[in-house]
Amino acid sequence: MTLATEVKKLTESKPFYAVAGVGDFAVEKLRELPEQLQKLQSRRTELAKDLPEMARVYAGKAESFAKEFPEKARGYADQLAGRATEAYEDFATRGRRVVSKTSGDAALELEEVSRAAKPATPARKPRTTKAKA
C-alpha cells in the first residue's frame, strides 16, 4: 500500500478529524487562559473574604445533594451519553474544517511525491572476474 493511500485512509476517518478538532479547541482555550488568570487574580481578595460563607452554603447543599445522588446520577449518565456523542460530532466537524483549511494543497503534494517516489532497489554486487592463469 502506498503512502498516499495510507494518508488518504487516515484523513478520511472521523476519529482523525475529532482529534484535530479537540486540538484546535484546546489551542483556543489556552489562548484565553492568560485573560482568565488575570481576572481571577484581580478578584483574589474578594474571593478570600467571601470564602468562609461560601463554604457553609456549599456544605449545606452537599448534604441534600448526597441524598438525591443515586436518582440524579442515572439522569446525568443518560445526558452524558448524548452530550458525548454530540461533542464527538462537533469536534469531528471542527477538525474537518481545520484540516481542510490548513492542509490546502499539502495532501495533493504528498500524493504526487508518493507516486513519483520509486521503491529502493538493493545495490548490486559488482561481478568479479577470475584471473586466468
Query: How much beta, percentage-wise?
Result: under 5%
Shape: elongated
Provide the helix percentage.
Answer: over 70%
CA gyration radius, whole angstroms: 29 Å
Q: How does the helix and strand content classify structurally?
A: mainly alpha
Number of strands: 0
Outline the biggest β-sheet.
none
Helix run count: 4
Uncertain ranges: none
| Average pLDDT over all residues | 80
Terminal-residue CA separation: 52 Å
Would you list the SSEs in sequence order as H and E? Answer: HHHH
Provide a descriptive summary of the structure in words.
It comes from Nonomuraea jabiensis. This is Tfp pilus assembly protein PilV. Residues 124-133 have a biased composition (Basic residues). Residues 110-133 are annotated as: Disordered. The chain has 4 helices and no strands. It is an all-alpha fold and 133 residues long. It is elongated.
Features:
133 residues; 82% helix; Tfp pilus assembly protein PilV
Quick synopsis:
It comes from Nonomuraea jabiensis. The chain is 82% helix and 0% strand.
Secondary structure layout:
Elements lengths: L2 H9 L2 H29 L1 H60 L2 H11 L17
